[in-house]
Amino acid sequence: MKIIITITVLLITTVNIYAQSDKKEMNKDVKKTEQQWAKEFSTEKYQVLRQCGTEAPFTGKYVNHKKDGYYYCSGCGSKLFSSKTKYDSGSGWPSFYALADSSNVIEIVDESLGMTRTEIKCANCGSHLGHVFKDGPNPTGLRYCVNSISLEFGE
Ligand SMILES: [Zn+2]
Predict the structure, then answer these.
(1) Which residue stretches of the chain are H helix?
(2) Are 104 and 79 in contact (CB under 8 A)?
(3) Ligand 1 center from residue 5 Cα (angstroms)
(4) I need a labelling partner for 93 at 20 to 30 A (CA). Which of 5, 30, 48, 146 fits?
(5) Burial class (CB in 10 A: 0-12, 13-18, 19+), 10
(6) Catalytic site residue 125?
(7) Which pLDDT tens digit goes with each residue over 31-69?
(8) Ion ligand 1 neighbours, Cβ < 5 Å
(9) Topology at the third CATH level for domain 27-154
(10) 115 alpha carbon to ligand 1 midpoint, in Å?
(11) Cα 132 to averaged position of ligand 1 atoms, centre (Å)
(12) Where in the chain are the domains?
């Protein structure tokens, strides 16, 4: 009986710590329920932005997009990337070597699919953007690999 109680207390504590760190990390200015997001977004957009999905490579509208301007979060409009840091990585997803404003993006270690990757999310609305890898070009050596559907371009 004691063991069960201890485990329960541990579980509750863990959940609490997780909930607190989640709150701290995400400056959720945009507060919507998952049902609201699901209503607003297409099925594909919901799967990528809210369920951490990945669009198929070479299918997104910004893979070969080369106009000058900024890429904003398609969930809330936060500024994420500048076209000046976009490059052709050959991966099939829009790739950038730097963030336009680092306070608008949070990084989370993602251990799904048997790999350790670093997920990137919008700091404002918590939408999934893609992942960041350490095989990018100079001057940062980083590759922000982003789903087109998570982005909205503006000049
Ligand atoms: Zn956002």
Answers:
(1) 2-25, 34-40, 43-51
(2) yes
(3) 40
(4) 30
(5) exposed
(6) no
(7) 899 999 999 999 999 999 999 999 999 999 999 999 999
(8) 73, 75-76, 78, 122, 124-125, 127
(9) 2.170.150
(10) 25
(11) 17
(12) 27-154
